[in-house]
From TrEMBL:
SMART domains cross-referenced by the UniProt entry: PQQ
Biased amino acid composition, Basic and acidic residues: 92-101
UniProt organism field: Acetobacter aceti
Cofactor: pyrroloquinoline quinone
Disordered as annotated region, ranges: 29-103, 438-467
KW Transmembrane (keyword) present: no
Signal peptide start-end: 1-28
Superkingdom: Bacteria
GO MF annotations, alphabetized: quinone binding; quinoprotein glucose dehydrogenase activity
PANTHER family linked to this entry: QUINOPROTEIN ALCOHOL DEHYDROGENASE (CYTOCHROME C), QUINOPROTEIN GLUCOSE DEHYDROGENASE
Protein name as it appears in the record: Glucose dehydrogenase
Boundaries of every Pyrrolo-quinoline quinone repeat domain copy: 101-706
Amino acid sequence: MTRKTTLLAATIVCGLPSLLAPVTASWAQVPSKNEDPPGERSGASKDALPHPGSWYGAPSPSAPQAGGVNAANIPDGPPAPPSEATPAVDQESSHPAHDDWAAYGRDSNATRYSPLDQITPENVGQLRQAFVYHTGSKPGPGQANKWAAETTPIKVGDGLYMCSAMNDMMRIDPATGKEVWHFKAGVKYESIPYTAACKGVTYYTSSTVPEGQPCHNRILEGTLDMRLIEVDAETGRKCEGFGYHGEVNLMKGMGESVPGFVSITAPVPVVNGAVVTNQEVLDGQRRWAPSGVIRGYDAETGRFLWAWDVNRPNDHGEPKEGEHYSRGTPNSWATMTGDNALGLVYVPTGNSAADYYSAMRSPEENAVSSSIVAIDVKTGSPRWVFQTVHKDVWDYDMGSQVTMIDMPTADGTVPALIVPSKRGQTFVLDRRTGKPVLPVEERPAPTATDVPNDPRSPTQPWSVGMPRLGFPDLKESDMWGMTPIDQLYCRILFRKSKYEGEFTAPEINRPWIEYPGYNGGSDWGSMAYDARTGILIANWNNTPMRDQLVDRTRADELGLLPIDSPHFNPKAGGAEGNGAMADTPYGIVVTPFWNKFTNMMCNKPPYGMITAIDMHTRKVLWQHPLGSARANGPWGLPTYLPLTIGTPNNGGPVITAGGLVFVGATTDNLIHAFDLKTGKEVWNAVLPGGGQATPMTYEYKGRQYVAIMAGGHHFMMTPVSDELVVYALPDTH
């Protein structure tokens, strides 16, 4: 951008600092210039739509997978019955060394808390770049940008381990960034789903291979093309005794699919010797999408252990020949948490396929969607379910990893789970039973809808024992813009929309406002918890959407076709934004609730916040907007102004014993440090790409480091890079 253009942008906005919203950067989840919602009475044809019936049938069990779905051509072998895992030894993540970050959330409890205290609010301003490591993963010539690495490295001993956006794994020196080994996974561009992302790898110590032998210590990952891979932590070579030459084909039993429809982006937990896998199933495609099945595999051998298939609840083996796991069931794409003591894995679920229409879901699906499901890792059977949204048609899926804490109560300490949600509701549950530790109320919810045969739930759960991470319901007087004309435009949009609060039911004949929106509240970055002080840190979003169901004729006119159609056009709609919802009577049109002429949101800022909560009193200690206007502004023009206006954010926080909170996440391309006690921002640094990842910290040879993957994010329209950036205080030796 020229200096003259920069000055023009600054002139436009400098007199209106509260207007500097980071809107353009926040709405890349709409993958193209989507159609607006059709508007009043234009979402459906004049004829009444029929009740869904058998004419929307699932594909045949024998329908073939497309070429390339079994990426490594791994032989399937016969269907396997349920079995139990090889007994495991204690893992590094159960009790990480003082200077390590041994798991995605640092420890098995997923606290994102480090006991390191060398860097403090008093000296954090002296942080300097220690090294930069390049993963080598960026869009190539002619490839659309679908990159969003989202990676948090792990550090165990003298190894820093991580994955690239395309699932290469690597070990680097913690002090210099020098590459020790680099495992090339060979994932192809065609296998990228909505996003090329790998949030992290898992460190596992074998109970059968002696120390000093290959694959005593291992690095595991699930891949975008649905493989489970184990490599030796020392050499990066595949563990030949695991699966088929180090790999397991996770498309076995999934039935008809194409590359990119199903993928793994989250690190896989190992719980009592069982590697537990979940998978992202691309949103918005069809009712009979591939299954959301959860499976267990032996961490030593890769042997199949069990499956939890929602519509086959009593069959924990692999499907028989000519059958497949039940299709369209709620998928789980978020990072799971394992509880070795209770033998459970806590699975955050989404809704059944076809997010915005629920009439075709089974009772079994409705019972477990948008929930935390605790699965017994010996049997694959759920022990309990806690549901956060009933009959979800708002895409309020559970994106956050849950955190295990010891919760003090009047009746003694309770082993508890902190459960964040996109709604901004934070639930606290007894992890033994799933019962709320803090009060949860069922409150009335609106049910009026013009969608035939798809009634809404009359009540929805509200966590009344925790502060809500959100703002009051929208009002017409809240509509906002750079000028009175812009505000008027947004008020007109508001009046033309159906809005009855958080659970406004979907409509065919007019748009409805979805707020806080499917990128609202807490998402995959989750929260951080300091057990010493009882302080919980959360960064969160405030981003409404404006949606409308359209009948199949209108969906066809808009070019809304599923990914497995030979005529699929990703520019018409993808995992977010417009969706085909094939096999149902409707497609969906989803747009930001914004002024499309300026690309500014219709609700007033802030759009991103950070909050500290005292878990002893459940009171907010401090709260303020997160993210500056420096890389954001109207018409997509960066303002370069360091005004904290609150930007959308993706990626989580970490807490250190030094009294600091580190977080990237924002669309200003900064990493931030806050004083844990006061919330004051005490340091930031400009990153080479967007910091849409959760940072981590470790110590090596007496020096503390802070690392963040600055890979950028196509979802957030931040600059893409392949750089892991690592900071430290000046070396005084």
